[in-house]
Design a protein that fits this description.
The protein is α/β, with parallel strands linked by helices and about 350 residues long. Helix content is about 20%, strand content about 15%. It has one domain: Metallo-beta-lactamase, Chain A, CATH 3.60.15.10. The chain has 9 helices and 14 strands. The protein has a 7-stranded mixed β-sheet with strand order 6-5-4-3-2-1-14. A 7-stranded mixed β-sheet has the order 7-8-9-10-11-12-13, with helices on one face.
Amino acid sequence: MPYPRVSVLVFFAFIGGATMLFSSGHVSESHDSGKPHHTERGFKNLDQPDEGAFIDLLRWQWERFRRGLPPRADYSFPLARNDPACLKLNRDKTTITWIGHATVLLQLNGKNVLTDPQFSQRASPFQWIGPKRVIAPGLTFEDLPRIDVVVVSHDHYDSLDQPTIMNLYKRAGGRETIFCVPLGLKKWFQDLGITKVREMDWWDVEHGDGLEIISVPVHHWSKRLFTSRNQTLWSGWVIRSKDFRFFFAGDSGYSEIFKEIGRRLGPFDLSAIPIGAYEPRWFMQRYHMNPEEAVQVHLDVRSKKSVGIHWGTFVLSDEPLDEPPKRLEQARKARNLSDGEFVALKHGETIILDGR
């Protein structure tokens, strides 16, 4: 097990004030009282009340301590052999590479898009404690092509990693990278000296260089500081070119909102949908979907092909880290999806889509 049995989630809860040294919270000035997901203090989900409570967190931690969870296991995830030189030279093929957790590289219309970039050893404000990476990124930071666009789903440390963001900004061409973020996160980037930031509300659209980027609602929450719950928004992202549609679900529990996304913006050629961090269900189901629900999202958004993300990289919950793809395969067969319609890739595996 990569970290002490006393969960780092409890650790962070009690030292939350100290994290202010490492990050900043900010309630967006773009609040609109006429929008149902806006509140006086931040944001809320549309379809279910936000019932998360600190006592539930303590109950979960006590249960996993008593039961010896998550299981102590040495995971061996083989890295796929990819071709970084080909990825750097690619200007005409549509590809997706799963780097790990919720980080994918999408190449579309000659542009390189990175989702929830996380290349650090821990999903934490510190590199000496917190959920530790069990496998190296499937594509090294140095092997990344130039990144044109980054989309961030929310402010949790497994999706918004400050060292990775700064390294992206400082690398060659990084000052030209556009960062698309949910409402409330622009100031966090500006405090780091990053100015090419597009802060977007749900259903907002950003146009540029042949791509259309749309922020869409998902069911989650935000909290980077001890007192900053839901002061910044959380989003999924749709990225479209003239002839290709990609949906990145980010981090979300199952919600009927996916049907609306499918109606308004689908069908999709490709989707990246979370399949991990779902146990125990009584605690996780509000904000993390299981593989069976991920298959339902695939159907809701009318995706031709989907890949599973948000698994196999950090131990964040109680299920075995290698369980999600096994349950995904069972769920795929139960819903009569064709082989390859919804897959779990190896870390670093690249798929070329439709010969583009």
